[in-house]
Amino acid sequence: MSGRVPIPGSRRITRDLRRALRFVLAGLREHWRSVVGFAGLMMFLTALLFFLGSIGIVRLDVMERQWGSFGDPAFLSLLLSTSAYGCGFLVAIPLGWLRATGSRYFHRGRRIGVAVPAGGRKGLAAFAYGGVTGFVEVLRGTPIFVQAFIWFYLMIAVAPRLWQVFTIAGFLTLFVNTSAYQSEVFRAGIQSVGQGQVDAARALGMKPRQIFLSVTLAQSLRLVVLPLTNEWIALFKASSVLGYIAVPELYSRALDIGARFPIEGFVMVGLVYLAIIVPISRVITYVERKRRIPGLGTPIDIRRTRRTARPSTAG
Amino acid sequence: MVRVQGVHKAFGDLEVPRGVDLEISEAEVLCLIGPSGGGKSTLLRCVNLLVRPDRGEVYLGDVRITDPAIRPEWVRQQIGMVFQSFNLITHLTALKNVMLGLRKVKKVPPSEARARAVHELERVGLRDKLNAYPAQLSGGQQQRVAIARALAMDPKVMLFDEPTSALDPEYIREVLDVMTALAKEGMTMLVVTHEMGFAKNVADAVAFMDEGQILEIGTPEEMFDRPKHERIRGFVGKILG
Q: Minimal Cα distance from A113: which residue of B?
């Protein structure tokens, strides 16, 4: 330990880790009752599992033997959903922007008599708006299960000899689906940046592209962190349907094991999903809370409530 | 410095302003008063082309800025504007708000922009709030940041759109003080306001606007003490109590 040379940045990482640990400990001190309740439930479920094992309903030895076989499928699931998510993210920003600027949002100013640029979109942009809206409706309005099978049979019909054709169909399923969902997240994010801020940026002499990048998009990216985390979790769970189109991902293990040991297989796969999702969502929630900008996306402005609460002392 | 000629702007059936003429010379402070919905804000927005007039012309110095060949960004860069609801960029600190225009529009290098922004915030008395986010500031402080943001661009004219109307009474003074100091330094200012005290003491001219037209324009003494129109007497009387 003592002879280790500190690598650059390592001190900062240990400081961050220490800070996170302090956060957890403080949380434990404050919420120990809830922690005990949570641990109690976990212990009860574990005990139940062992009880079911002891009376022969669940084969614990099968579960023990099968754990190792979840590694590669878990990796494939993570890889597929995360890469599809990343590609979908890039596509979703322009799609969300088209949806946001083409909707009534831009007309709204007119009704209240405030000057707003270009009421709605015209020409090509109007077609694009309709097209994107249709795309979003179709993908959100049909089960991902159905979409997966369509991609599956489409790919088989078009390119049956393609390398890893099922996995590619699986990737396309997730990628196209998440593009639609994420574009709606971005639409909401972009629309929630007030017209006032845009006006202020215009009044400074900024160009529309600059305003979009450094005001609207910069702000909505912060606003959508949590909804986008939810979308990643939803996508990761939804990737389980790919097990049905012959992609050897996580859920397909449950199907394989489940052929002989259904309870064991599904309990195990559920635990693996949990073990991946819970830490990731906890870490992102923690980071978002620590990095949150006051007044941005927080529903209650603490200072304002305090101010209205003390008119008796003022003046 | 700014000349407005026969400006019309319609929103649907509502036409405000309806043919407004106005002139502000250099270092002059002109206050626009009048009832809500009279077209004051829209007229202000026509001056920096946030709203493009349907008819009429606006000149900045000798330049006809309503000329379609002139880029509105170029016009706005030279005209500062302060809004009723501050309109600070929520995700940026006070310092970054003031630096925004310098960095993006004037392309000033970061260190220089920072120094200028600090200087402007110092001028409005917010040296100790550089790294505060808008939500951490009082209304009066936010509005002063907004003024600093506009001043950092070295504007030739400043437009104020009811800068104190959204403020709690205890914060109005600090904003008016900054504006008064600015007027004394010789800034050309066009101010839409309901602060009659400010109009009386600081303005060189006061214009009364209603139903999209300027009813009367004169010195503060003329407008407050012996206005020609009964409408104005009534309005001023109501506001002054």
A: B11
Helix (H) or strand (E) holding A247: none
- Return residues 189-218 of A near B (CB < 8 Å): 194, 196-197, 199-207, 210, 214-215, 218
Tokens found for residue A160: 């049956």
Per the structure block, which two tokens stand in for A204? 């400074």
Residues of B in contact with A113 (CB under 8 A): 11, 14, 37, 42
Buried b (16+ CB within 10 A) or exposed e, B50-89: bbebeebebbbeeeebbeeeeebbebbbbbbbbbbbbbbb
Single out the residue of B125, B119, B144 nearest to residue B134, CA to CA. Answer: B144
Q: Which residue of A has its CA nearest to B74?
A: A205
Classify B6 in phi/psi space as left (phi over 0), alpha (psi -120 to 50) or beta. left
Measure CB to CB from residue A203 to each of B81, B89, B134 and give the nearest one.
B81
Q: How far is A183 from chain B (nearest CA, A)?
A: 22
pLDDT at residue number A117? 45
Angle at which helices B139-151 and B169-184 cross, to 10°: 20
Q: What proportions of chain A, in percent to the nearest 5, are helix, strand and coil?
A: 80, 0, 20
pLDDT number for residue A314: 35
Q: What is the overall mean pLDDT for chain A? A: 86
Q: b/e map of B159-175 (b: 16 or more CB within 10 Å)?
A: bbbbbbeebeeebbebb
Q: How far apart are the first and last CA of chain B?
A: 35
Chain A residue with the nearest C-alpha to that of B84: A196
User: Which residues are paired to B190 by β-bridges?
Assistant: B30, B159
A9: contact with B, CB 8 A cutoff: no
- Answer yes or no: are the C-beta atoms of B87 and A196 closer than 8 Å: yes
Nearest partner of A245 among A80, A101, A83, judged by Cα: A80
3 state SS of A192: coil
Write the ipTM. Answer: 0.94
Q: Which of B104, B151, B172 to mutate to test the interface with A (most CBs of A within 10 A)?
A: B104
Q: Is the peptide bond before A73 cis (omega within 30 degrees of 0)?
A: no
In this model, does residue B28 exceed pLDDT 80? Answer: yes
pTM listed for this prediction = 0.83
Burial (CB count within 10 angstroms: exposed 0-12, middle 13-18, buried 19+), residue A34: exposed
Picking from A115, A197, A294, the nearest residue to B136 by CB comes out as A294
| A203 interaction partners in chain B (CB closer than 8 Å) | 48, 50, 76, 79-81, 83, 150
HSE at residue A214, side-chain half, CA atoms within 13 A, is 18
